[in-house]
Specification:
The complex is a heterodimer of chains A (265) and B (143).
Chain A lengths: L2 H58 L64 E3 L6 E3 L2 E3 L17 E3 L3 E5 L4 E6 L2 E5 L5 E6 L11 E4 L9 E4 L7 E2 L4 E2 L2 H4 L19
Antiparallel strand pairs in A: 1-6, 2-3, 4-5, 5-6, 7-8, 8-9, 9-10, 11-12
Chain B lengths: L1 E5 L2 E16 L3 E6 L4 E6 L3 E4 L5 E4 L8 H4 L5 E8 L4 E5 L4 E4 L8 E5 L2 E5 L5 E5 L12
Antiparallel strand pairs in B: 1-2, 2-3, 2-7, 3-4, 4-10, 5-6, 5-9, 7-8, 8-9, 10-11, 11-12
The chains are: A alpha+beta (265), B mainly beta (143).
């Protein structure tokens, strides 16, 4: 066989491989597009189910609903299984549009006596193990909890739109509820996240919510939120407060007075 | 106003800018502006004010009774603000006064806001930077 013949023979399969690669790329693109459509449909179904559950909940809410017992790490929080053991119990993060279980809702998380669950506790953010699914009104939302460990949010923070607001999950697994119409901006060095009203100038702190990455003194990071005059707020009073009162740990359980979108001024 | 980024941080150079507003709540807010731009500085933890004669005073913005010396700087001309990436912030006034602050172990020490950029001195000192292009105010860069 001459070198020229070898070239022709060796050239043919290479050409076929090239065509195969192109086909593979086209297939991948179609597959990706199909997956994106499926994901969208799934999220719409989640949203629908969430609204139905919220509606059902509003009709059937009972203050005697089983809760994780005090002393448990999730103490006082509603459990989805109803056995009071805390197995699988998760903070319920709200459908903001319904106003049930949300930042306006004074009935949400409580570590108080289950007999008096309505004493002004709220949960606007949730902290759970990274990569855990998030449970929203007993609805498991896969892929929301956890952004993949330290080092930033990646190309975009995992988020789930409830229709009335959006829940953003930090790399550490903390989730922040952003009111409807808010947009996220990540720090250029991936060490923080600002949620602010869409269209608001960046030099305006009014009504923003900000998350800061963990440090040795705040190993789980911290949150701050601001009033409409751009002042950081003490969640217990809804008024401007000291540094100690306005750097809020993610596992804070208490009222979040004056939280943006809650209607407080 | 010019914002210059250096290896170690940023400097904001002013042309004919003054300390046009002082705000007091639990922080000290200083609004430095000229006819075109402004920079808002919010100091949340203790800082040092040095006079041209070398007298230094440590002032805690959460103790409002300590803030009186700042009032004399109202409308003073500001030459520049220098920020290091490790959280030191210095404001130079034309009258010789210098205001210096640095990071805090537990809290955000200061925040600087101006057109297109927000700098936050995170606890322990690293400066967290949020940059915005003009179209990002209506659409997040993450979306």
């Amino acid at each position: 066989m001459t070198p020229a013949q070898r070239g022709q023979l060796s050239g043919a399969p290479i050409e076929r491989k090239h065509v195969a690669d192109e086909r593979s790329i086209a297939d991948l693109q179609r597959e990706r597009s199909w997956l994106a459509r499926q994901k969208l449909e799934l999220l719409e179904l989640y949203d629908l189910r969430l609204r139905l559950k919220a509606q059902l909940y509003s009709e059937k809410y009972s203050p005697n609903q089983p809760r994780v017992p005090k002393g448990n790490s999730d103490g006082g929080q509603w459990t989805s299984y109803g056995d009071g053991s805390g197995r699988g119990g998760r903070v319920q993060v709200a459908d903001l549009r319904s106003g049930r279980g949300g930042i306006n809702d004074q009935r949400v998380v409580s570590d108080a006596d289950p007999e008096q669950p309505l004493n002004g506790r709220t949960a606007a953010w949730y902290r759970g193990p990274s990569r855990d699914p998030l449970e929203i009104n007993n609805l498991r939302v896969e892929g929301v909890g956890g952004g993949g460990g330290r080092g930033g949010f990646g190309s975009s923070p995992p988020s789930y739109s409830t229709g009335g607001g959006t829940i953003y999950t930090t790399p550490r697994g903390e989730s922040i509820v952003a009111p409807k119409g808010y947009v996220p901006s990540e720090a250029t060095n991936k060490k923080g996240l600002v949620l602010s009203p869409k269209g608001q100038e960046p030099n305006n702190n009014a009504n923003i919510i900000r998350y800061g990455e963990p440090r040795s003194e705040s190993p789980n990071g911290y949150f701050r939120y601001y009033n409409n005059r751009g002042q950081p707020i003490n969640p217990l009073t809804g008024k401007p407060g000291s540094n100690n009162d306005t750097h809020i740990p993610p596992d804070f359980k208490g009222p979040l007075k004056g939280y943006p979108g809650s209607g407080a001024k | 106003m010019k914002i210059l980024e250096h290896d170690d941080g940023w400097s904001i150079e002013f042309d004919d800018a003054n300390l046009q507003m002082i705000k007091i709540d639990f922080r000290l807010g200083l609004i430095v502006a000229n006819s075109i731009d402004d920079v808002q500085i919010y100091l949340g933890t203790p800082f040092v004010l040095s006079s041209g004669a070398g007298v230094e005073q440590s002032i805690d913005p959460e103790k409002t009774q300590e803030l009186a010396p700042i009032l004399s700087l109202f409308n003073a001309e500001v030459l520049r603000i220098v920020v290091t990436k490790h959280g030191d912030l210095t404001i130079f006034f034309r009258n010789g006064f210098i205001l210096r602050t640095g990071p805090d172990a537990r809290f955000e020490a200061w925040e600087a806001l101006t057109r297109g950029i927000r700098l936050v001195c995170a606890p322990e000192g690293e400066v967290v930077v949020y940059e915005f292009s003009s179209d990002q105010t209506s659409q997040s860069k993450l979306n």
